Amino acid sequence: MSRKPVIAGNWKMFKTVSEALTFVRGIRQATVGLGYAEVVLCPPFTALALMSEGLRGSGISLGAQDVFWEDKGAFTGEISPVMLKDAGCSYVIVGHSERRQYFRETDEKVNRKVKAVLGHGLTPIMCVGETLDEREAGVTEKIVRAQTTAGLAGLAPEQVAGMVIAYEPVWAIGTGRTASDEDAQSVIAYIRDIVREQCGETAAGNVRILYGGSVKPENTAGLMSKRDIDGALVGGASLEVKSFTEIIKRTSETRR
Fold first, then answer.
1. Catalytic residues
2. Which domains does the chain have, with CATH numbers?
């Protein structure tokens, strides 16, 4: 099964609107001719609408970093999937470990968000992954299974086939530590097996599963050479045009 790789940049709480637009001008120029991998930029909410204009015609997709599950209502400070679609988004990160850790997002909330995103024709990038304590306790598979199973609960196989899952070991995010190519492949293959059990062979064969956690140009080719790794959710290295472009380039070269 040939799955087109996705390289998604999660900017987290970085870049003002003017900084974001400067980045867009740079990345448009730098990625001309690097069309094999699908590229997604996920800036803060404040930059979405203007970045959508700036990316028009570039082939680069726009994503949001979070969403609320209701279309509208008295939910101060929240952003609905309707608003994200209107702002030009096609992807939404859901259940990132920082949302789970700092904002107490549960598997049930993640599932509600995934359903809301899909319900409006957007593509969720659903994050799963274990902490360092959980890894050292040998319960990586247990944690990943629980998060994946709950996150996909109630979804039709065709919905799962079209979404994106990101395996992000929490201990590797922003720490400079990266799971080995073999470890990342092993867990991602396990996630694909869970999808196969829950949603069938077609969904398992089509769902794209990314690796995230201190992805850099230097470790990109090794990760992308693994058969079940379909791209990367990139943090710090997505904030600079040069490093992000190099990740896209190396992914395209490895996966062609």
1. 96, 168
2. 6-255 (3.20.20.70)
